[in-house]
Specification:
The chain has 30 helices and 32 strands. It has 847 residues and is α+β, with helices and mostly antiparallel strands. Strand 22, helix 19 and strand 23 form a beta-alpha-beta unit. It starts with 15 loop residues before the first helix and ends in a 9-residue tail after the last helix.
Amino acid sequence: MSHAGPAGPWASTARPADAASETALRQCLQEAPDGILVLDRDDRILLRNRRADELLGLAPERTDAPALPELLTPDEYLQWHEALQAQPPVPLLLAAEARPGRRGDLWLAVGPGGFPRMAVLRPATEHAQEQERIRLLSQALDCSDNAIFLCDSQARIRYVNEGFVRMLGYAPDEALGKLPGELIRGPHTDAATLDRLGEQHRAGRAHRDHLLGYRKDGSPLWLSVVATPLADASRSLVNVFTDITESKTHEVLNGKVLDALVREEPLATSMALVCQEVERVAPDLRVVVTRREADGQLSVLAAPSALMPADGTAAWDHPACMQALRRGRAVEVEDIASAPMFDSHRATLLGLGLRGCWSNPIRSTAGQVLGTLAFHCHRPGAPLSWHRRLAELCLHLCALALEREQARSRMHRLAFYDVLTGLPNRVMFNALSEQPLMQAEQQGVPMALLFVTLDRFKRINESQGHAAGDGLLRDLARRLHDIAGPESVVARQVADEFTLLVPHCAQHQAVTLCEELLAMVAAPNVVGSMTLHASASIGVAMYPEDGRAMDTLLRHADLAMRRAKDEGGGRFRFFSADMNRLAQERLLLEATLRDSLRHGGLRLHYQPQVQGDGSSLYGVEALLRWRHPHLGEIPPARFVPLAEECGLMTELSRWVLEEACRQHADWRRRGLEVPRIAVNLSASTFELPSLVDEVRQLLERHQLAPGALVLEITESVMLSEQPQVPANLHALHALGVRLSLDDFGTGYSSLSHLHRLPISEMKLDRSFISEIGHDPTASALILSVLRIGESLGKHVVAEGVETEAQRRFLIDNGSPALQGYLFSHALSAGDFEQWLHDQVPLQPPLL
């Protein structure tokens, strides 16, 4: 290394230990990657290393001490002295073009201090790379959306990036030297959080937190604060502010409110949570949520107590909310103090420090306005973008909650209320009856349960249509509710059956009420364009005489109602013990009938039908008989309607048809000449789509010709509006089965339908036959029926022939077939075979 000679700073006069240190120091300087110069006050080089010689183009063997003016141009030397005046001194760029021997551009930098002073030489390319790295780092920090800033040990800001400027609105010169809390503190910033952050910062500890801060323009934002100390002894910290307003809003609202909805909290609780959470993340707001009621008005679901209606009700006539409801769009009032719509509410709102109001309609997914969401702000002006985003999130949550409440309400109504009439259904009636029953028991007062049903309601539906029937039921429900009074419980049980539970009602009061109800139902009722005339049957059970439990009272009132209906309708009956006995007997009959049907307890008897001249057998009619194991013979007039009511009639008809065909086939195999067998099927059997196939298979199984089977139909079958019935009748006729119209002449519409149906035979009702010789009108009607049958080519079978005079009249007037006690009662199969054997030729027995 070159040096300045014996007078240099590292003279050889040093002690041995110092000499060793000097040698080590010289060696380190020689190996330094930068050029090192030691200068005296005259800018002469006292010491230089090999790297300096290389960069300056000096020969290593040169031993004198060159001066800077010798190595620099005049301009560079002048700039050098100017650079030394700065504090700290600034580097000087030495251009290669100024000195041909120089290897590229150089940076010359001198450190602060006295003399001798040390300067450093570095190639400009290396310096530029370092500067480029610094520039890229600075650019990366400035591109960040986060606010990044450096604070010293006293928590004062020493550096801010461009993200800081963009986020908070402060220019660097406004922020440098300030405490962060001085810049972000606002009216609702939590002071305790700010103090805690400052203490952590001054202690040089890493920390993180979040708080509500404010920008330079006063707008709020939620900040995540993260501070990290530098890895040196300065105790400086790098701070990062992240705007978490959006995530904070989602976290608070979606998390807590959706959790409340999942837990099925009451609607008011969920809406109060919405208000509380909005006001927590945006303390400058006061929130009100309302619901639209059926009358078109608004009611408050959640609001600060200071904003609740003064009269203590939930009604809400807030002008902005009412406008948002009516218009179906947002209403923004920037200053309540000057808005004309707030004339009646201004004093209250301004007294609470509220200046702005923004109300939004809450819409369902179908677009229906369900209510409103109103934000009241402590400052005037339009809502901030954050406020709009808050409102958007809240509107979705409120709509979800309100729609869910509507769905829950609809499900409740469907489960507990009748859709047609709006009355409680059977389940709700039982629930609503618990309290009146308890009070009646505690107070020892009477109570009446009325069971009301319309007479012949099915015929109204069939003749006038279901719309007319529904209108009649709705009107009846309204009238029942009006007559019963507010303390009564009125419900629709099923179809046209209604119940009324009337508290504090003695028997004589129940009589008056029943009379009023019957008169009300009997009054002409205009439904649409038609006037309906109806009647009702009412059964009454009294508490406590007829039962103390609701199930018992309902059962007894139902029995009394059915007694009133059986007696012709248009009346009321009180329950009696006899009704209960008959009902129990009916249940016993039903159970036994089912068992008899399935285990061979039924049988058929056969009544002969003879040719009018008595010369031969026309056919037989199969008649069902049932002997009860305890009650003896049960007449068909009693058990056939029972079978219809309990759903056994189709099964019963199939059994009768099967047994009759089996017996007829057996007679045929044994040579007994029975031309045909007649079977009376129920009306419901003719509605079966499978009837024709069943009859075809039955005939094939027993090898019977279709003409050997006669199916008797009643007027109700002929009048049926079920499309399957006429289709079955025509298909049976096409199969070859004969059809007979039973009880012809007793129905008002038989003639109008006779020509449209494939009837082969008509049966003259016994009520006409019994009047022969007594009533000329009956005789005239018989003659008319015989002529109709003759002209239409249909056989006429006269039922109920019991006297010789009746037989003679019918024979003389051309009746082709006769049936009645004059010839024989209905007989068992064996007795009929004996009768047939004894009646050759067939003659009526002597009386």
